[in-house]
């Protein structure tokens, strides 16, 4: 399912215009991304939790030069489903 399919399903179920639903979903995504960039945790009860995790440095071998390199720490977005959503 892509963004357009999701909007159409919501439109059929709620009778809200495509434009308004698209605006709401876009703003929802922006709020989530802004909060994650600040390191905040977003907990939506009954759905799940958005949060970030820092990955540590690790060594890897470059496939091109065959040299050993060190990767930097990275902050990765994560999502954990609510226990109510497990099938």
Per-chain topology:
Blueprint: H1 3-14, H2 18-37, E1 42-44, E2 48-55, E3 59-61, E4 68-70, E5 74-81
Tell me about this structure:
By secondary structure, the protein is an alpha+beta fold. The chain folds into 2 domains: 1-39, no CATH class; 41-87, HU Protein, Chain A (Irregular), CATH 4.10.520. Helices cover 37% and strands 29% of the residues. It has helices spanning 3-14, 18-37; strands at residues 42-44, 48-55, 59-61, 68-70, 74-81. It has a 3-stranded antiparallel sheet. A two-stranded antiparallel ribbon has the order 3-4. A hairpin with a 6-residue loop joins strand 3 (59-61) and strand 4 (68-70). Helix 1 crosses helix 2 (18-37). It is elongated, with a radius of gyration of 19 Å.
Instruction: Report the β-strand fraction as a percent range.
Output: 25-35%
Instruction: Give the name of the CATH superfamily of the largest domain.
Output: IHF-like DNA-binding proteins
CATH architecture of the largest domain: Irregular
Q: Report, as a whole number of angstroms, the end-to-end distance.
A: 19 Å
User: In the CATH hierarchy, what is the class of the largest domain?
Assistant: Few Secondary Structures
Which percent bin holds the helix content?
Answer: 25-40%
Give the uncertain stretches in residue-range form: none
Task: From the alpha carbons, calculate the radius of gyration and give it in angstroms.
Answer: 19 Å
Shape: elongated
Adjacency order of strands in the biggest sheet? 1-2-5
SSE pattern, N- to C-terminal = HHEEEEE
Instruction: Decide which structural class fits the backbone.
Output: alpha+beta
What's the structural domain tally?
2
Q: What's the β-strand tally?
A: 5
CATH topology of the largest domain: the name is HU Protein, Chain A
- If helices are DSSP runs of H or I spanning 4 or more residues, what is the number of helices? 2
